[in-house]
Design goal:
Radius of gyration: 24 Å
Mean pLDDT: 77
Strand content: 15-25%
Order of helices and strands: HHHHEEEEEEHEHEHEE
C-alpha cells in the first residue's frame, strides 16, 4: 500500500507541477459555450433505451467473459510469488525517472492482503463446497458466469475472474484458496465431489 500510495502521490504532483508551469501568452478572451452536461442530456433523451436494452443478450455477454479452468483432480498446496513489470516509466515531481520502464517488483513486499481469496468454477459442486467452507472475510471470484445466481440464490457476492489473474494470483485449477504469507501466496487446490446443491 505504501508503494501504491507513493506512485499515486508522484503522479499527482507531476501532473499538477506540469499544469503550474503553463504560461499565458497574448490576450485571453471569454468564450460562450453550450454546457456539456446539457448536450449529453439532450442526446440521451433522444435515445430509445427500452429498444436498445432489448437487443442486449445478457447470457451471451457473460459467456464471452467466461474463463474455462480445469478442475482440481487432487488436493494440493503450493507457494506462488507474484512479480509485476512496469509497462511505463514512473517519473518524480521533477520529471526524473523514479521507477524505470521494465522495473520488476513483488507487490507483496509492500502490502498485506487481509483474508482469503477463493476461486471457484460454475459447477453445483463448487457452490455447495463454497457455502460450507467460506468465511465472512473471504473474497469470492468465479471463472464462470454465475455471479447473478450466487447473489440471487445463495446471497454470495462474487467477482468475475479476469485474464490477468492466473499470473497475478498463481491460479492453475478450481476451486482454489489463496492466502498471503509473508511476501508470497499459499495456494490450496481442493478436490470437490459432485453433489446436488440445496437451494
Amino acid at each position: 500500500m505504501q508503494y501504491h500510495n507513493t506512485l499515486i502521490f508522484c503522479l499527482f504532483i507531476y501532473a499538477n507541477n506540469t499544469y503550474a508551469e503553463r504560461l499565458l501568452i497574448g490576450a485571453t478572451y471569454s468564450v460562450d459555450e453550450v454546457d456539456a452536461l446539457s448536450v449529453i442530456e439532450e442526446k440521451a433523451n433522444k435515445v430509445n433505451w427500452e429498444k436498445k436494452l432489448k437487443k442486449i443478450n445478457v447470457d451471451k455477454t457473460f459467456n464471452k467473459m467466461k474463463t474455462n479452468f480445469s478442475r482440481t483432480e487432487e488436493d494440493n498446496i503450493f507457494t506462488y510469488t507474484p512479480y509485476y513489470v512496469l509497462e511505463n516509466e514512473i517519473p518524480d515531481k521533477d520529471g526524473n525517472t523514479l521507477y524505470p520502464k521494465g522495473f520488476k517488483y513483488n507487490p507483496l513486499d509492500y502490502f498485506y492482503m487481509p483474508g482469503r481469496i477463493i476461486v471457484i468454477g460454475e459447477t453445483e459442486a463448487d457452490i455447495l463446497w463454497l457455502k460450507k467452507h467460506k468465511k465472512r472475510t473471504d473474497r469470492i471470484i468465479t471463472t464462470g458466469n454465475i455471479i447473478r445466481e450466487l447473489k440471487k440464490d445463495h446471497d454470495i457476492t462474487a467477482f468475475k475472474f479476469t485474464k490477468e489473474m492466473p499470473e497475478r494470483l498463481g491460479i492453475r485449477h478450481v476451486p482454489s484458496i489463496i492466502l498471503q504469507e509473508d511476501n508470497h501466496f499459499i495456494i490450496e487446490e481442493v478436490k470437490v465431489e459432485d453433489e446436488k446443491v440445496a437451494m
